[in-house]
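User: Thanks for the earlier help. One more: LacI family transcriptional regulator. Can you show the sequence and predicted structure together?

Assistant: Of course, both are below.
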Amino acid sequence: MTAAGKHQVSRAETSRRGGRPGRAGIRDVAAAAGVSITTVSDALNGKGRLPDATRRHVREVADRLGYRPSAAARTLRTGKSGLIGLTVTTYGDEPFTFTEFAYFAEMARAATSAALARGYALVILPATSRHDVWSNVALDGTVVIDPSDQDPVVSELVRQGLPVVSDGRPVGSLPVTAWVDNDHEAAVLGILDHLADAGARRIGLLTGTTTDTYTHLSTTAYLRWCERVGQDPVYEAYPAHDPCAGAVAADRLLARPDRPDAVYGLFDPNGTDLLAAARRYGLRVPDDLLLVCCSESTVYASTEPPVTTLSL
C-alpha cells in the first residue's frame, strides 16, 4: 500500500473513532477511564445510578482529553436543542433593537454566561409577536424581559409547552413558568426622597406608555409618592421604543408652566434627552434642574454635567 493509501486509511479510522482528527470521542474517554460508553454518557449527563467517585473520574478523564459531547448527537438522544431564547416583547412589532440599550445588552451578556455554564447556548430573538418567528427556532425555553400584560409571545410559547421565565413580575394572570424582578416601588421612592432631600420642590417623571411591570409599577409609585407629599404629579409619557419620542417628551416636560425642578427618567436615553432640553431652555444642571435616570450605561459619568443614574 502506498503512503497516500496508508494516510487515507488512517484518516478513515480516525473518523470512525470519533470524528475530526485529534478530537477525542466518547470511545476514547471510555477506554481511558476503563468504563463502558454507557457509563461515560451517564456520568457526563447526570444520569444513571453511578457512584460519585465514578462520575468525577469520568469527568476528569473527559476534561483531560478535551472531550466535548456532540450537540447534534445530544439533540438526537434527548430531543432537546440546547438553545434558550431571549427577547424583549413589550414593544411588539415595532422596529426596536433592544440590545442597543445598556440594560438589555447587560442582560443578554449575563444570560449568555449563565446559559453556557449550564451547557446551553443563548439565541437573541427579535421583539416581535409574530408566532412564525418563534416556531421556526427549536428552543428548550425562553427568557422574556418586561412582558406586557397580554403578551402574545408568552401565551404562544406556553401553548407550545415551552418554559417561559419572565424578567419582570407578570401583570395580571400571564402564565409564565417563573419570574424574577427588582423592587421597583422601593427604588422609585428612594430616588424621589433623595431628590426632595436635595432641595427639589416639584419633581417630574418621564415614563412610558407600555403595560409592562417596570413601567406600571414605577409610574404608580411616583403617583403615590406625589399623593403622600402633597405634590401635583408632573409627568410625560411616551412610546419608549421610539428614540425621537423621548426627546419630544423631555422637551414637553420642561416647557410646562408648572415646570419641575427635578426629573426622574425611567429609560436609558432620558438623561441625554433631558440635558439637551435643559440647554434649549437655558436651565443649568444641577443648579436649576436636578436629573436622575435609570440606566446601566457608563456614558452618564462623562456627560457635561454628569447625570446620576439608578442601576437595576
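User: Great, one quick takeaway?

Assistant: The chain has a mean pLDDT of 85.
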